[in-house]
Amino acid sequence: KNQVEQSPQSLIILEGKNCTLQCNYTVSPFSNLRWYKQDTGRGPVSLTIMTFSENTKSNGRYTATLDADTKQSSLHITASQLSDSASYICVVSAGGSYIPTFGRGTSLIVHP
Amino acid sequence: DTEVTQTPKHLVMGMTNKKSLKCEQHMGHRAMYWYKQKAKKPPELMFVYSYEKLSINESVPSRFSPECPNSSLLNLHLHALQPEDSALYLCASSHRDNLKETQYFGPGTRLLVL
């Protein structure tokens, strides 16, 4: 069964600090992995997308890494801002399937 | 234009009402999706349309009826819903139904069924 596990479930950090979110998956055959940011009550917004051959992708202060061998990904947020407070969702797609597997998300709160 | 729009933003309906949710994109995407999301849970896929044809129906109850009138529009018709159907309904689109393409999500319609 395809699964995506994210950790931690929630995280509280101070403004200006860095943090790293984790995503482990068992989706097979692997096609791509995406990180989304979702503000409360809003639709998810894509941050990065990586395929098998990519091991890092940056989008401003967000940097995602992928280790296809260990089936792990991380999302690193640099110099956090109050607006980074949101849920971060890892989504993994299998080759040949229209149905992506969503992680349960990490809820990030950035305090001033 | 990289935006998916959804209307209405909020909807309150009784269990005997008939209502429709609307979704629109002008990015030339040929795949469109409906998701249902409960609080603090990930989105659950409901339907996928590919080139205006229904390609995936994730065993959704018949009280939800999707419609894709053209390549830019996606509707979700609601009838005789239950209180447990209250949720955030998200529309998404992608260039095609190859999931290497990023799905762009709309802001969602928050539905409350009384």
Salient structural properties:
heterodimer; A: 112 residues; mainly beta; six-stranded mixed β-sheet; five-stranded antiparallel β-sheet; 11 strands; globular; B: 114 residues; 56% strand
Report the count of strand segments of chain A: 11
- Determine the strand fraction of chain B and express it as a percent band: over 45%
User: What does the oligomeric state look like here?
Assistant: heterodimer
Order of helices and strands of chain B: EEEEEEEEEEE
Radius of gyration of chain B: 13 Å
Structural class of chain A: mainly beta
In this structure, how is the largest beta sheet of chain A organized?
Answer: 6 strands, mixed
Q: Total number of β-strand segments of chain B?
A: 11
Q: Which percent bin holds the helix content of chain B?
A: under 10%
User: What is the number of helices of chain A?
Assistant: 0
* Largest sheet properties of chain B: 7 strands, mixed
Largest interface: A-B, 23 and 26 residues
SSE-based structural type of chain B: mainly beta
Question: What is the helix/strand order of chain A?
Answer: EEEEEEEEEEE
Tell me what you see in this structure.
The complex is a heterodimer of chains A (112) and B (114). With 112 residues, chain A is an all-beta fold. Chain A has strands at 4-7, 10-14, 19-25, 30-38, 45-51, 56-59, 62-67, 72-77, 86-94, 101-102, 106-111. In chain A, the strands form two sheets. In chain A, strands 2, 4, 5, 9, 10 and 11 form a six-stranded mixed β-sheet that branches. A five-stranded antiparallel β-sheet of chain A has the order 1-3-8-7-6, with no helix packed on it. The termini of chain A are far apart. With 114 residues, chain B is mainly beta. The model of chain B has no long low-confidence stretch (mean pLDDT 91). In chain B, the strands form two sheets. In chain B, strands 2, 4, 5, 6, 9, 10 and 11 form a seven-stranded mixed β-sheet that branches. At the A-B interface, strand 4 and strand 5 of A face strand 9 and strand 10 of B.
